[in-house]
Amino acid sequence: MQFNDVIGQQETKQHLIDMVANNRLSHALLFLGKEGSGALPLALAFANYISIKNGIAAKKTKEATVSLFGDPEPTETEPEHFTPATIDAWMQKQEGFSKANTYTHPDIHFSYPVIPRKSGDKPVSTDYITEWREFIQKFPYGNAYDWLQFIGAENKQGNITAYECNEIIRKLNLKSFESEYKVLVLWMPEYLGNEGNKLLKLIEEPPANTLFILVAENESLILQTILSRTQLVKIPMLEPADIEKSLTEKSKVAPAQAQQIAGISEGNYREALQMLQHSDEDWNDLLREWLNALLKNGPAAQVKWIEEVSKQGREKQKQFLRYFTHLLEQSIRLKYMGSAINGFSLAQNEKDFAERFNKLTDVAQQQAIVEELDKAAYYIERNANAKMLFHALSIKLYHIIKDKVTMQVN
């Protein structure tokens, strides 16, 4: 992973590079970014840079090795201007690049949630290192759910266990192999229970030239004792233009479709890829059927619609709710800003829907619906029963639209 492989985040990339250039690098960093922002790819690129910068070739440069004939041996010095592009070009010429780029560098260690392969196992991250390397190469913007499904967890809960904490302590107390630095990338510290306190002394007083990079999505789920010992690096959500560019260049998506997906995904690249995967779904027709069932066709039509949507997978249900939320947000903007929204025009069918919905509901009602949709998506993520959820949601939406009930409906 190089900085160029990380979508957008130019300011954050430059900030990290400047930290190293100005010798302001803390021994423990917390990369905090919401799902799809690119916190993990950025951490991987940064870990590679630290290990390569302080690797074999860098040591030779520092020592200014002299050959038998008295002439300095040629070495590849760092670039004069420290930017993501120049750092990437420099890294590609270094001895440790191929190992770092394939996640096999002996001085970069990884820790992540795992499950027992069989009852009674005491799993550690290295049990799944082959799967991990494949996962981060294929799905660097994936979340914990994607990872656990990738290793066949199904409904099992992943954890970073006490045995893993002991393994981290053991590995980081060993001497480094090729680099001056030993780097630990700990993904999802939210999965550390109280056993994470085992790491406190190591994080607070690490061996020389040891770097911790914690990569998290939810600050509130991290042990406060660990949080207080790290330097925070906030990873913002991606700009729609960066997502659009990546979709057109990497996924070969048509510009118009890429523009639409980028707008709906709200800075979440994982969500954008999920939408692309389900781009053949006609969410607009499904939404019209739902609203017609609610407002015109009665209970029988509602039950039929709920039966149909409950058969869809969890990801499709979430995509549908997100699509509805997107249309409602655009309806509100359309009311005040006209047809040009967020730098692009709505598709004609979406514009028609927004205009009709604006006549049917006011802003307060639309905001109330958005809140209900967000809560429903949250519960779907946590395996709520789809039939019960969409039945309850249908009742709430009916009252919001018909009865203009904009306060929370329990």
UniProtKB/TrEMBL annotation:
GO terms for biological process: DNA-templated DNA replication. It comes from the Bacteria. Pfam families: DNA_pol3_delta2. InterPro entries: DNA_Rep/Repair_Clamp_Loader (IPR050238). This is DNA polymerase III subunit delta. It comes from Pinibacter aurantiacus.
